[in-house]
Amino acid sequence: MTWAEIAKRIKKERGDQILKWFEHNPKRIYADIDPENLLDFARYLFKDLNARFIIASALDTPRGGVEIIYHFDFLQLPQVFSIRVFVRKPELEVESISPVIKGAEWIEREIAELLGITFRNHPNPIHLILPNDWPEGNYPLRRDQ
Q1: Shortest CA distance to 97 belongs to which of 115, 80, 85?
Q2: 143 lies in a domain?
Q3: Total-model pTM
Q4: CATH number of the domain that residue 106 is part of
Q5: 26-41 pLDDT, tens per residue?
Q6: Please, are residues 108 and 98 in contact by the beta-carbon 8 Å criterion?
Q7: Is the peptide bond before 99 cis (omega within 30 degrees of 0)?
Q8: In angstroms, rounded to a whole number, what is the distance separating the alpha carbons of residues 113 and 99?
Q9: If DSSP states are collapsed to H, E and C, what string results for 80-117?
Q10: Which residues contact 5 (CB under 8 A, 6 or more apart)?
Q11: Is 85 part of a structural domain of the chain?
C-alpha cells in the first residue's frame, strides 16, 4: 500500500476524529485529534493499518497544557505519521495506549513522571526515571515548576 492510499483510508475511516491534518513535509504528517479519541485512533493505526509505533513525545506549551505526539510509521514507507493530542491544565489526564500497544508503556511512564500527565488505565504506572522519593507534584519538564 502506498502512503497516498493509507492517507486516503485514514481520512475516510477516521476523518470525523481528525481536527486538523498537517503535512509538514512529504515525510512528516500530523493529525490533531481530541484526547478522548486517542485510544481508538491508536488502536486503528496499530491493529487495522499495521502501523508501527515508534515513540511518543510531549511538550509543556505556553498555551496552557501539554501536547503529546504519538509517532507511527508504515514498513517500507518513508513517512512518519503522528497523532497529536492537547491536554489542558490543570487536568492533564488522557487514556493510556499501553493496553493496546505494549511498547508505549515506558514512554508514557516517562512522560507521566517528567510532565505530570495521568495516563488512565496504564498497566504499570510506577516511577521509571526519577527516584521513588522524588517530591510528589514536582515535574522537571513543566513550565510552571
Answers
A1: 85
A2: no
A3: 0.94
A4: 3.30.460.80
A5: 999 999 999 999 999 9
A6: yes
A7: no
A8: 19
A9: EEEEEEEEECCCCEEECCCCCCHHHHHHHHHHHHHHCC
A10: none
A11: yes
Q: Which residues touch 72 (CB under 8 Å, ≥6 apart)?
A: 45, 46, 51, 52, 53, 54, 80, 81, 82, 83
Number of domains in the chain: 1
Q: Cell for 98? A: 499501553
Contact between 108 and 97 under an 8 Å Cβ cutoff? The reply is: yes
pLDDT the model gives residue 138: 94
In a domain, residue 31? The reply is yes
Among 9, 28, 23, smallest CA distance to 81 is for 28
**Residue 95 in this model has a pLDDT that exceeds 80:** yes
Q: Is 82 a member of any domain?
A: yes
Burial of 33 (0-12, 13-18, 19+ CB in 10 A): buried
Among 139, 134, 84, 132, CA closest to 116: 139
Task: Decide if pLDDT at 96 tops 80.
Answer: yes
